TrEMBL record:
InterPro entries linked: Aminotransferase_I/II_large, AON_synthase_class-II, PyrdxlP-dep_Trfase, PyrdxlP-dep_Trfase_major, PyrdxlP-dep_Trfase_small
Listed GO biological process terms: biotin biosynthetic process
Annotated signal sequence range: none
Homology family: Belongs to the class-II pyridoxal-phosphate-dependent aminotransferase family. BioF subfamily.
Organism per entry: Penicillium rubens (strain ATCC 28089 / DSM 1075 / NRRL 1951 / Wisconsin 54-1255) (Penicillium chrysogenum)
Domain (Aminotransferase class I/classII large): residue spans on this chain: 35-410
Cofactor needs: pyridoxal 5'-phosphate
Keyword Heme found: no
Annotated protein name in UniProt: Pc13g12580 protein
Keywords: Pyridoxal phosphate, Transferase
A family per Pfam: Aminotran_1_2
GO molecular function list: pyridoxal phosphate binding; transferase activity
Length: 426
């Protein structure tokens, strides 16, 4: 037996083990998804599926007829083109930031940021549910890390006070506490209590030695002036020191940008391995991003944001007022974490989690797929054990009829499961 066969056997063993645990990831067939109504993708503004982004992208090509397809080099050599420089200036102005640095993905941006910017002696206080890319960046960095309970202001205060009281460098202001948050969290769809957290930081660290970072992957394009995001919506551009905006969700393309002061940008250029050792983004990738931003700032972009919020509210209202919901909820077949708070939220996330009993999210998703509605089951280790769910994503182009129909399909499955549970208890 040669090395390749030994390796193949070892890898297959790991895959078989994951399959036995019902955790094997198998990407769906694109032709299958194409036949279904989309309640799963991140194309929340429907820029991609509607063709609007394609038209705007073609406009960018016409405006720049002499573009070259390739990148030619990394950012630190010849890869920083004039178009890229101008786009970074544009994005900084769009988001009311001092400077912007483009990355090939949100993952790259977060790993670069958290592995590079916090220094020895600093601490990172992070929300329990921040994205995996933030965790990967923190693991590669030099700062010590502490977790606080998700969106729990009391837990945040306790952790911050303990940090201050047990670390002279924090107490005297010589070292920093970085606070890592998301605007809308990707699995629960809830919003960070940003004003409360900022106030706690100000009162606990009177010397002001803290820096907040907000990952706006799920809010970019959806709220704020011209869709500029969560931080600008709250008017906190001067209080949030670090922002990460990604382009693979509402904007319909790919890449990300770190918004920060110029010193941080230049530090990332010098020390972030994903900048130094990665090929710079091509004109085609950059043009797609610029096309998306121009759509956000247009009347059509504003219309799409309004329509999305209307669709989100319609889903909540229709789902929670359904005559079968009370019995399903009582049987604990489906739970919606933000059931009680959605009415009071002025602007809402398009992510609506349907939390199921353990190992049943795939059954619900399969039932939806058979009815020609696409949504994604999410299981451990992506979410905590016992918190399996089907993640519903609402889109601009979802019609009211489609929303009503998918809710009926969900209720059909949940009613059947509730009846099974009732009979099992007899």
């Amino acid at each position: 037996m040669d090395g390749k066969k030994i390796l193949s056997q070892k890898l297959q063993f790991a895959l078989d083990e994951r399959d036995r645990d019902n955790r094997l990831i198998s990407p769906p067939d694109p032709s299958t998804i194409a036949q279904m109504v989309d309640f799963g993708s991140n194309d929340t503004l429907s820029l991609t599926t509607s063709g609007a982004l394609t038209k705007s992208f073609e406009d960018q090509l016409r405006k720049n007829p002499d573009f070259i397809v390739g990148s030619t080099s990394t950012r630190v050599f010849e890869g920083t083109t004039q178009y890229l420089k101008e786009l970074e200036v544009y994005m900084a102005q769009f988001h009311k930031a001092e400077s912007a640095l483009f990355f090939n993905s949100g993952y790259d941006a977060n790993v670069a940021l958290w592995s590079t910017i916090p220094q020895n002696g600093d601490f990172i206080l992070y929300d329990q549910y921040v994205h995996a890319s933030i965790h990967d960046g923190m693991r590669r960095g030099r700062a010590q890390t502490i977790m606080f309970a998700h969106n729990d202001c009391a837990s945040f205060r306790h952790c911050l006070e303990s940090l201050r009281d047990q670390n002279p460098g924090i107490a005297d202001g010589s070292n920093l506490v970085f606070v890592a948050l998301e605007s809308f969290y990707s699995m629960d769809g809830d919003e960070a209590p940003i004003h409360e957290l900022l106030e706690i930081a100000k009162t606990t660290l009177a010397r002001g030695n803290f820096i907040f970072s907000v990952d706006e992957a799920h809010s970019n394009g959806l709220l704020g002036p011209n869709g500029s995001g969560f931080v600008t919506h709250h008017g906190l551009e001067k209080e949030i020191g670090l922002r990460v905006h990604t382009f693979g969700k509402a904007l319909g393309s790919n890449g990300a940008v770190v918004l920060a002061e110029p010193t941080i940008k230049f530090n990332l250029i010098n020390y972030a391995r994903s900048v130094i050792f990665s090929t710079a983004p091509s004109f085609v990738a950059l043009a797609a991003v610029k096309a998306g931003y121009e759509l956000l700032a247009s009347e059509d972009g504003e219309r799409r944001r309004r329509t999305l919020q209307q669709n989100i509210r319609y889903f909540h209202k229709t789902f929670l007022s359904h005559p079968k919901w009370a019995a399903i909820k009582k049987a604990k077949i489906i739970q919606i974490p933000n059931e009680k708070s959605w009415k009071s939220e002025i602007l809402q996330s398009p992510i609506i989690p349907l939390v199921t009993p353990p190992n049943e999210s795939t059954e619900l998703a399969g039932h939806m797929h058979r009815a020609k509605f696409w949504a994604n089951p999410v299981r451990y280790p992506i979410v905590p054990k016992g918190m399996d769910r089907v993640r519903i994503s609402i889109h601009v182009d979802n019609t009211r009829e489609q929303i009503e129909d998918v809710i009926e399909v969900i209720m059909e499955w949940a009613t059947y499961r509730a009846e099974q549970t009732r009979k099992a208890r007899l």
